[in-house]
Every structure is written in structure tokens, then in C-alpha cells.
């Protein structure tokens, strides 16, 4: 398993070793001992989630705050997404910076996202199966989000505005400037 640091502290790209032959392929998608050894992080995942989306569906930018903050391990089983994370840990040297990566069912790359990050993705192919592990349980009262197209963040979502399909909830998320005004203790 290859683990590479991103430009955001604590955020890693994980590439499993894939074994294949005429029958198909096999890979270990997560190994706690290897992950801990290579990152220094001791993570225990408690919840797995999956979504299936058509091309142009944008989900984000979201996070859980307070005692329900979550670290996540993201991957695509089938299809393709542009996955985006934003560091919103106010004490971080990369506060307000983002990282994006294309995750596909073919490249098998995964993204580890620590607590204190916003997360979102846009599907680039129909029938995309997206899955992620969380180290904390979902709590609807702890949801927080920033609008995907906030100009302060400067994220390139690849598709045009007319191709993007958002939920009503995601259309009404906060701006990054409104986030900055929230007390640090309310976010993490």
C-alpha cells in the first residue's frame, strides 16, 4: 500500500497494491496496521456509507462539527469523481486551502480526510458508486457546510454550472466568510 501526503497536513492519498490475473483482480482496500505505521494515525472506523450518483451530481461541501467530527476514508468502486477537501482547521497553516483528486473505479486511489476538513465531490460518469468509512457516527444536528462555488475557495469543479446537479440543501449552504466568523470551538 502506497501512502502519499498531500499539500494539506494530515490528508493522504492511498494507493493499494492490485494483484491481477486472467480471473480478475484483488486488493486490500484498508489495513489498520499498515495505515498506522505509514501515517502515525490510529483510526478506528465505525460507519461505512455509499452513494450512487449520475454524472454532474455534486455533493458538498460538508463536514460534521464538534464531538461528532469525522475523519473519512474515501474511494470510488465504479465510475469517476473529482473529490475535493478544504482545510477549515483555523489553527492550521493550510487553513482555507483545498486539494482535489480524481478517484475512479479503475485507479483504485483513496483519500484519507482528517477531522476538521470540508468534503465534497462531483460525479464525472453516470452510475458512480462512491463509498467512505467514518471514524464517528453521523449526527444530523452536527452538520455544517459551505457552498461549493464560493469564490474565496477558488475550486474548479471541472463541469460547467449548467451540468451540475445540487440538492436543495446544498444550494443554501453558508459562505466561507460566514464560516470565518464562527468561533473555533463551535467548529471542532
From TrEMBL:
It is an enzyme of class 5 (isomerase). The keyword Signal does not apply. The active site is at residues 62, 132. The record marks 138 as: Participates in a stacking interaction with the thymidine ring of dTDP-4-oxo-6-deoxyglucose. Keywords: Isomerase. It catalyses: dTDP-4-dehydro-6-deoxy-alpha-D-glucose = dTDP-4-dehydro-beta-L-rhamnose. Belongs to the dTDP-4-dehydrorhamnose 3,5-epimerase family. This is dTDP-4-dehydrorhamnose 3,5-epimerase. It comes from Polaribacter reichenbachii.
Amino acid at each position: 500500500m502506497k501512502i502519499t501526503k498531500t499539500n494539506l497536513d494530515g490528508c493522504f492519498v492511498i494507493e493499494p497494491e492490485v494483484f491481477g490475473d486472467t480471473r480478475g483482480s484483488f486488493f486490500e482496500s484498508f489495513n489498520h496496521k499498515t495505515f498506522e505505521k505509514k501515517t502515525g494515525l490510529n483510526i478506528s472506523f465505525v460507519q461505512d456509507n455509499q452513494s450512487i450518483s449520475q454524472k454532474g451530481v455534486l455533493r458538498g461541501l460538508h463536514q460534521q462539527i464538534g464531538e461528532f467530527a469525522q475523519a473519512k476514508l474515501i474511494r470510488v468502486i465504479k465510475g469517476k469523481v473529482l473529490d475535493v477537501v478544504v482545510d477549515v482547521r483555523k489553527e492550521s497553516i493550510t487553513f482555507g486551502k483545498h486539494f482535489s483528486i480524481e478517484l475512479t473505479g479503475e485507479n483504485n486511489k483513496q483519500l484519507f480526510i482528517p477531522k476538521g476538513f470540508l468534503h465534497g465531490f462531483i460525479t464525472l460518469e453516470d452510475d458512480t458508486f462512491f463509498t467512505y468509512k467514518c471514524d464517528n457516527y453521523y449526527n444530523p444536528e452536527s452538520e455544517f457546510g459551505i457552498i461549493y462555488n464560493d469564490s474565496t475557495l477558488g475550486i474548479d469543479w471541472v463541469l460547467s454550472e449548467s451540468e451540475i446537479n445540487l440538492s436543495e440543501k446544498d444550494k443554501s449552504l453558508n459562505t466561507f466568510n460566514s464560516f470565518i466568523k464562527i468561533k473555533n470551538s463551535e467548529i471542532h
